[in-house]
Amino acid sequence: MAKTRAYKSDVKAAIHETALDLHEAGLIDKHTMRRFDQSSLTPVRTFSAAEIRALRKREQVS
Length: 62
Hints:
The chain is mostly helical.
């Protein structure tokens, strides 16, 4: 399954993609990349077990 990123804005998406390229080239360290992730990406919502069960039932998936 491929991961997709949800950005807060188009500008933050462009900045994050540039930072990601710099990180892959070895010019930005992990700590700095994590800070870019936190500032650019939308937070991941956590679901409770009951919410997951309800979602799977509603969408009719096993």
